[in-house]
## 1
Amino acid sequence: MQNTRGQISPKEGQITSSANGADSKSAATSLMKRVDRYQARGNMLAQMGCVLTKEDQDRARAEVLAYKF
Amino acid sequence: MGQLSREEIAAFCIAWRDAEDSLKAVEGELLQLPQQPINELRYATRHFIRAIEADDAAECRTQYDAAIRHCTCASYDTAEAVLLFRALRFKLFREDFKDFPIETPVLDYKAALVAYRGAQDALSRNPEDRHHRKTHVQAAVASLDVFDKSLDDARDELNKAVAKDRRTRNQWLLGFAALVVAAIAACGQAYAAIVRADKQQALPTAVPSAHPPKLQP
């Protein structure tokens, strides 16, 4: 399936730039499903400690900002 | 329904796709999936659906702007995750070689320091405004590219130099220890000679007599 920027197939959870309202909505719903898949993957990876949480990122930011390069 | 123009929909697609691409890239580099951008993409999509479903133009515009903003935030969060990861990697590198001069042709250390300070500056700029900070952080990530890529090679090279330095130091220590042992052995021998000489002086000069004295009962 050919995917170029701005012309993304709704079937793949993406939206064509020529999509009408109904198509846009179904495509947006597909996008949401895609986010859910990412979320599910994130939950699975979290069990292996392979997820960067907001707290991890905040801690890393504080550490980097406090460090003297 | 359908108050969004085709250009606006395309713009949202591009922003969403950009954020997703950077999410995939960051997962490949960090070997961790950042949680925040996923949430931002969820918010973006939700606002986009509301924009499509909105009855009046003002609501549609508000929701659409929010959707684009969340896409930007997702891109920003992924860029920030990369920046933090690289900065911490460099920090670890400096700490590992803190007792050793970091001189290697692989890494321009002074330029790297300047770049990492710039990255730190980008992180601290406009703390409340992720939308504007995104540009600075993405530029900082790009500026660290060359240094981050050369960090592994620099580490290998410096490890070799450290090993060589350690070997030389061990040889010196071994030489010094041998010298000390030899000195102690020499001192021991000298002391033994002195003791022997003293004993010889203390003994009576036993001159063998031709007529030994007869013992009286």
## 2
Amino acid sequence: MAIRKLRAIFKGRKQQENDVNEELRFHLERQIESNMAAGMSVNEARRQALIAFGGVQQTREAVRQVHWTRFLDTLLQDLRYAWRMLIKRPAFTSVMVSVLTIGIGANTAVFSIVNAVLLKMLPITAPEKLVSLRLNHGEEGGLQLTTDISYPVFERLREQNQVLSGILATGGGVNKVDIKPTGPGANGQTEQAGMELVSGGYFQVLGVNAVVGRTLTPGDDKIGAPNAVAVVSHGYWKRRMGLDPAVLGKTFVIRDMVFTIVGVAPPGFFGETVGQTPDMWVPLTLEDRLFDEALLASASTSWVNVLGRLKPGVGRQQAEASLGLLVQQANADLLGPKAGKARVRMEIAPASKGLDVLRQQFARPLQVLMAVVGLVLLIACVSVASLLTARATARQKEIAVRATLGAGSGRLMQQMLTESILLALIGGTLGLFLAWSADRVLPVLLFHSSLSLELEINTQVLGFTLLVSVVTGIIFGFAPMLRVLRPDLSCSLKEHAGIRDHRHRLGARKIFIVAQVALSLLLLVTAGLFVRSLRKIYDLDVGFNKENLLLVTLQPSAELSGARLKIVYQDLLDKVNALPGVKSSSLSMSSFADGNINLGPFVVEGYTPKPGEDRSLQGDIVSPGFFNTMGIPLRLGRDFRQQDDANATRVVIVNETFARYFFGAASPLGKHFAWSRLDRQPMEIIGVVKDAKYSNLKERTPPYYYTAFLQQDQMASIVRLLEVRTAANPATVSAAVSSAVDSINGVRADTISTMTVQVEESLQQEKMLAQVSSSFGVFALLLACIGIYGVMAHSVTSRTNEIGIRMALGAEPFDVLWMVLREALFLVGLGIAVGIPAALAGTRLASSLVSGLLFGMKASDPVTMALAALMMAVVALLAGYLPARRATKVDPLVALRYE
Amino acid sequence: MGNQIELLQGTLDLLILKTLALEPMHGWGIAQRIQQISQDVLQVGQGSLYPALHRLEQRGWIGSEWSTSDNNRRAKFYSLTRAGKSQLEKELGEWERLSAAIALVLQQS
């Protein structure tokens, strides 16, 4: 019925126009007839009628004006009325507004992230035409080996290709550099900035113009170009320079090189990778002057990310073939005929949404978050609808009076919809502020601190919030309308409706409670799954002692290599070990969650690989004392010693999984393993250590090996991590360790962290999901509590009479208490009965989404379901208790007189 | 036609209500009736008649219905509602007091 009314309102407009036209036509015709009857000719009659009538169009306008004025008048009147109704009951209104604020705000906040990460295309011209270019070197130990491209090969591709309309290269990522503004007005302070190296054609190929000055040009990016120039991001210009219009020509210094700012990139342009926000772009050819390890001239080091645009009419395969040939030629010219023969293919893939780690990594958690906040909004809707229905019941008399005074039901509906949409819009506006502040916190919770995201409340987000608010308002506004429009006026006008009628009226609210319980249960199950999964991860054995372990990344100078580096590092260890509070220290290449070497194919003595087996292995390079410092127990054999150096037999230590996988029950000690491709001597297994976690806590422990730092030559320089086992809180010695490291010539402490922090950071996603979903779960429980309390309180009031009779007939207080609680439990039971199958169905539908984020449990985990249901039941009892107790206090005599 | 008088704002509403008090009528009929009864002194412009009719209808003083006119064509007939009747009485009372007051003032001089 309400829907028909609504449709009538919209249909009415068109109908009205037609009616007015017909009415005016009729008038004219009658006038003509009348003129003819007075003896005029047809033409004359017509002419006179039109003259008498005046402008038909003007009249039509005037009539329309009447309707418009009327519409605006009503709207204003309705808004005023709605506003009066809202402020008349401030407590009630503020509960509803806060519920909506949280519901809409949460959705806006998550949407703004989803919008930035998943939906926003690169802010560049025709991004869908952009492709990424990578080299495929064929299979290597069961792995498809793809790499970036070396700079000399990129130059060849740029000069000689026939298939691309544009090509660009970047240094692959943002480098944190120390910059020092110079020139007049600069305070000479050094600050950190994110810099990206890009080729001269970068901005032209992306189709991005500067908002101030110019972008980089190919002329800026010539090897040996006299002037170093930079384009800064809009964000940097705003943040660091206060949008100073005199930005052009300002200078700063990076590593003794003076850069001149020639332009500012447009706002919203963050480069080619979502999730990275460089502060400035500088020419790629400066690489060899900006970094110690100069890669620019090397044709064998693949380090530049290459993007391009295909010429119109050129297919992907054609381009791959043509560019592949160019690469082979270039390799042959630059690296010799042998390199030219290597199987190298060009791989072209669409790059329209950026070369984004962020999207791949966060798509799932973001979708889950969106679903969670969607659920929250639904719960908010239901609970506001329930509250409004309660109020509509209270307002029924007022509405009935208005209806008898001639307000049509369409008019009443318009009024009530205005009220609910106004309510939702207030909630939406506040929600926007909530989202705005959440946008400062959420990305930090969601992403690693190294990734930054430019979140803004832009038109898309505003539009989303407006849409959500209006739709929300319409949805929850419908509920009380169904109640109001029931044509039951005479009944409502009576002061007392009977007991039966009250029960009947509670029906709708009870349905809301059931729906609310079911939806809250879904949310609780989601939260429960994430929380329990996180607990399970925490309960895992990491395999090393993560407490009191300081991690320092070292920055050895480029001149230190081979034997010299080993001596310097030994000095360093001695110095650190001598510090008070330090128990031991060691060196390694990688730490937890920090990347390992992955090499292959391997050959293990006495082991025949299965066909199709992945023949790469993960491992680390460690110094003597590493296992002791880390707290990884030795199971068999011995640790590395100082004597295991370059002249001694090559040795290796493996983990238990390695031993079990390759040797079963037999002892691996004395066995050998080697890399088949690299011409290396086989290594003898001298020890077995306990399994540990290497990449992340959730991984299934892989076979893992440790090689000796002292036996490495070129690989030694990638050993850059210092572990320090401390007696107490590692924070107390971190300063001392840092200065001890810096006191060694040629080595600098880069970053200092602790293992506990590293482990915690690796769980960021899981923690975020658990925190966010359980906070919303608590919110849902609170709302359910309020809802159940409201319904039960109302129920008790309307049953006072009945309760009085029961007590007069000898019912004990406990019976009355139980009678009320039973009703609350029944409602919740119904909700659970609906919610559990819904949760099961939901988790099945979303299993691909959720199960990847869960650890050690299925999405249909029965324990979680049971816990959620139990929690709901407890809440029902709590919420029902107060009204139930009030019921026991009913005085039978008073109650019987109540009617 | 030199003796026609432009209607004052507000008086048209009163005339329409009064006319409709006799019987339901369409717009043209109302205009004709007012003209006839006033012996062509009061000329109702269509540019003000129809907006006035729609305004009155929205205020709930008159209702409308499509039905067949005397010449067998569909026309929109307006009729007085209950609210319109009491409004008419109120406005009549006001009009009488106003015209009596004006008459008093004019007789004085």
